[in-house]
Write a structure and sequence with these properties.
Layout lengths: L11 E4 L2 E4 L8 E3 L9 E6 L9 E7 L4 E3 L10 E8 L5 E7 L5 E7 L4 E3 L10 E8 L5 E7 L6 E6 L4 E3 L10 E8 L5 E7 L5 E6 L4 E3 L16
Parallel strand pairs: 1-3
Antiparallel strand pairs: 1-2, 3-4, 4-5, 5-6, 7-8, 8-9, 9-10, 11-12, 12-13, 13-14, 15-16, 16-17, 17-18
């Protein structure tokens, strides 16, 4: 299967602890399953018409066992979106993240409360623009996002929702060098890890947060050759 990305839109099928890259035409699609016995997939995509002038807003759809149905209103985002991703907590609540065209292309996270999509914290909460944003939930359901932060030469940042607002996990743009293809995962103890292509040599690097700062896991650029579409 072709795993090349289309523009900046990424797509993934997400099973518990396993992810596989999947490119799906002009649709940004991410499926999440609650657990191995209750697999009800959720899909997040850009909602657009055929017109190239259309504003692509976010829509989430769920497979109910026989068909796909919209979760809440279609096109619920304030403006156009890019780099959509989705995660589902242990209670079955879906969260989405995206680069928010209605808020200067900064990061926004929303969740579905059973009736409507509502912001998690403030819309457009990142300090600068957020490209290639990806979302993960820790074991307690706390959302994290990783993204390439504008104004920092292509370095990556991670932010976490505290319950009242969003704050950087460690320092902003902590990778110090340009990166591509960022991804994030949280281990069972709540430790976040990120993986990315290092902009210096194109090889893969993984970092984890130790409670006060980010550190390289093993060696930076540990792959022998150029690495693409890193997932962790």
């Amino acid at each position: 299967m072709d795993t090349d990305r289309i523009e900046s839109h990424s797509g993934f099928i997400a099973w518990p602890e396993v992810q596989h890259d999947l490119a799906i035409y002009a649709i940004s699609l991410r499926l999440g399953f609650r657990d191995l016995t209750d697999r009800e997939p959720w899909g997040s995509r850009d909602e657009s018409s055929v017109s190239v002038q259309a504003v692509r807003k976010s829509t989430v759809m769920k497979f109910d066992g026989s068909s796909w149905i919209a979760v809440g209103a279609k096109g619920f985002s304030a403006g156009g979106v890019s780099s959509t991703s989705i995660a589902v907590d242990t209670n079955g609540t879906p969260f989405v993240s995206y680069s928010d065209g209605g808020n200067s292309w900064k990061a926004t996270v929303m969740k579905y409360n059973g009736a409507d999509w509502v912001n998690v914290g403030s819309a457009g909460f990142s300090t600068n623009t957020a490209a290639d944003i990806l979302l993960a939930l820790d074991p307690g359901g706390t959302p994290y996002v990783v993204f390439i932060e504008g104004g920092w030469g292509g370095a990556a940042s991670v932010m976490k929702y505290s319950g009242t607002g969003w704050a950087y996990t460690g320092t902003a743009a902590f990778t110090t060098t340009p990166v591509s293809y960022v991804s994030i995962a949280i281990d069972p103890s709540g430790t976040p890890y990120i993986a990315y292509q290092d902009g210096l040599d194109g090889a893969a690097t993984v970092q984890k947060f130790n409670g006060s700062g980010w550190g390289i896991v093993g060696s930076a650029g540990f792959t022998d050759d150029r690495s693409l579409y890193e997932q962790i």
